[in-house]
Amino acid sequence: MSPVQEAGDGRDLETLRRLVEGLDARDPALTSHSELVSIYAARIATRLGHFLERIERILLAGTVHDLGKVILPDSILFKPGPLTPDEWDAVRRHPEAGAAMLAEARFEDVAVWVRHHHERIDGSGYPHGLAGDDIPLESRILGVADAYEAMTTDRVYRARLGHDAACAELRRCAGSQFDPAVVDAFLGAAPDELRELSERGRFPRSSPPPRESRRPGAAER
Question: For 7-75+86-201, which CATH class?
Answer without folding.
Answer: mainly alpha
